[in-house]
Design brief:
Helix content is about 75%, strand content about 0%. With about 230 residues, it is mostly helical. The termini are far apart. The protein has helices at about 5-45, 50, 60-70, 75-95, 100-120, 125-135, 140-150, 155-165, 175-190, 190-205, 210-220, 225-230. Helix 7 packs across helix 9 (about 175-190) and helix 9 crosses helix 11 (about 210-220).
Amino acid sequence: MVWPNLGPVNSSMNRINLLRVIGICTAIVLALHACMTFYGDLIRPSFRASDLFSGEIPPDKAKLAAAGGLASFSWDGDLLANYAAAMAAGILHFPTINAGGRASENKTVQAAIIAALKVSPIRPALWLTLGTLQAQAGEAVTPAVKMSYLTGAVPIDVAFSRVQTVTSGAAATDEEVRLLAQSDIRSALANRSRYEPLLIAAYVQATPQGKSLLLETTEVTDPKFNEILRRY
């Protein structure tokens, strides 16, 4: 008795079974992703990087801890960015008394911000937050500040904070940053009634290069305010 050749049939069955396995695995991955996205939407902090510079209160530590658990393996750019911004607000507004603890916290938050920016880099306020932490740690801030300019527009509160960061450190020596910072200074001058005392304070605390940047910009934009600055 001669048995029929079942090779083609077996091969077809193997391919069908493989496609079924692939389909099942894909469905499981998509279901997990949907569940994680839904859970992320529920626990995502509403606190954004721009809120850090406008005086908003960050979420409490319990809510932040829940977001942190998911952030460790999530690819949700909003979740990662908001979580990192809330962490930054916590250590900038309520710093640890111990110097060693502050340095450790600073590094931890910088790592969280960098992780968020790798997933979702078009976040100018978050780049500035990174620069602010780097300045606090005595590190170079120019690359982060420059990225905050190159990745989009920011609210006026963020723009003024950027003026403070630029004029108080080495970023004011970078010609490209100086050129970009002029738009922030002009924005603050357009709201002079609100920002005049803050600009004066920024000028008093500025480096020589920062002072020259403020003077050069105000000399063209607002000569009367320029005269006021020169008194300090």
